[in-house]
Write a structure and sequence with these properties.
Strand order of the largest sheet: 5-6-7-8-15-12-11-10
CATH topology of the largest domain: Beta-galactosidase, Chain A, domain 5
Number of domains: 3
Helix content: 10-25%
Oligomer: single chain
């Protein structure tokens, strides 16, 4: 009897293990969030979807040294020749409520941020990289500058690919995109549900030229409070340290002393009225600005930090407001945003944005969010096999007991 049970136990383990391993592998290589979904193939991120629209068919990353060697390119070759790169192996490292993080064998990190803009960030951590983006279907692309390309999906969804740091991005003859990203630089893709506004274009320029160091998203997803931080500068970190009704506190830290802008997107459930939001930096009231120009001036050695409150453009896929904070200097600053329903009960005059477009182009997806809420149910992968084998075990035990 013991031998019979032991053999059946081995059958049970061997039957379950392959199914469970296959299910785990499939789960790790795909992501589906509130806004963003994608699959990760062996050497590419594929079917990158934002708000139900596939914006990028495939993202492939390869080190420049490897690509130039494999393709026979010289260092001076144009990006057009890099469209044939095979792509380095991709591994999904972590997934959470607000993001997924991947690494490549070429020394790059790929971050998919599940926020209203569906932000995708490729960072060249260890060495310079080529990044190839195959666009979906009948998408069209337009060169905005050496560091920015705007592309539009068939349904009108607009996206911008931009290089932050050293490098450039271009539209190939086939209508796809390739980018050269130097070490410690990154390629950022920001997606819009509708057409981009002048404010969106201004913020893109601020991201590219280094004025905007991070975007912070304070969201509600499936009834849960979730935060997400997209960092554009390797020497800057931002963390939401406290979130209560009508109040958000975050800590921004930067190794350099020069001021920077933090773009904060807050769900409509956070503040009773976004127009009443007031901002304090290290406990001192920040001055209210009426334009992006004033915000930038504050970061350029201004006497005080400044902020501007505006309703998020229709381009964002989320119902939220935006608080643009220009922090006048660093290293570590605490920023508190308080609405009329917050503990301070403050109120103020709502800010407004201008169409200012005087930011010239020049030149760490940060992990945040809770643990994955994935669960396994009785109808999950391998459950039928487990039930069948357990039935066999029961039958064998019964037969063994009846045996004379």
């Amino acid at each position: 009897m013991k031998r019979t049970v032991a053999v059946l136990a081995m059958v049970l383990v061997s039957a379950i293990a392959p199914v469970s391993a296959a299910a785990a592998t499939a789960e790790q290589q795909a992501y589906s969030g509130t806004h963003v979904a994608f699959d990760a193939g062996s050497n590419a991120v594929v079917d990158y979807t934002v708000g139900g629209t596939e914006t990028v068919d495939a993202v492939r990353v390869q080190s420049q040294s490897s690509a130039e060697s494999n393709l026979g390119l010289s260092g001076s070759a144009g990006l057009e020749a890099a469209t044939a790169l095979g792509g380095a192996a991709v591994s999904v490292e972590t997934t959470a409520d607000s993001h997924a993080s991947m690494t490549t064998d070429s020394g790059a990190t790929i971050e998919a941020h599940d926020n209203g803009y569906g932000s995708l960030v490729v960072t060249a951590d260890e060495q310079s990289q080529y990044v190839a983006l195959n666009l979906s279907g009948d998408a069209s692309a337009e060169q905005a500058s050496e560091e920015r390309v705007v592309f539009t999906a068939e349904d009108g969804t607009t996206s911008t690919a931009m290089v932050v740091g050293e490098g450039n991005v271009t539209v190939t003859e086939s209508g796809n995109l390739t980018a050269s990203v130097a070490q410690d630089s990154r390629l950022v893709v920001r997606n819009y549900a509708e057409s981009r506004t002048e404010a969106d274009e201004t913020e893109e320029r601020m991201i590219v030229n280094g004025t905007a160091a991070a975007s912070v998203h304070v969201m509600e997803q499936s009834g849960e409070a979730v935060t997400d931080v997209v960092t554009y500068s390797e020497d800057t970190t931002v963390e939401v340290t406290e979130r209560a009704e009508g109040q958000v506190t975050m800590t921004a830290e930067r190794s350099a002393s020069e001021g920077r802008v933090v773009l904060t997107h807050v769900s409509e459930s956070t503040f009773e009225s976004a127009e009443d939001v007031q901002v304090e930096v290290d406990g001192e009231a920040a001055a209210q600005a009426s334009s992006y120009t004033e915000i930038r001036q504050a970061t350029n050695g201004g006497d005080t930090s400044k902020y501007m409150v505006q309703s998020a453009s229709s381009a964002s896929a989320s119902a939220e407001s935006e608080v643009v904070v220009g922090i006048n200097h660093f290293s570590t600053r605490e920023v508190t945003m308080t609405g009329s329903s917050g503990s301070d009960g403050g109120s103020g005059d709502g800010g407004s944005s201008d169409g200012d477009s005087n930011d010239g182009d020049s030149a760490d997806g940060d992990d945040s969010g809770g643990d994955s809420n994935d669960t396994t149910t009785g109808n999950g992968p391998g459950f039928g096999v487990v039930a069948a084998v357990l039935a066999l075990v029961g039958a064998a035990l019964l037969a063994a007991r009846r045996r004379p």
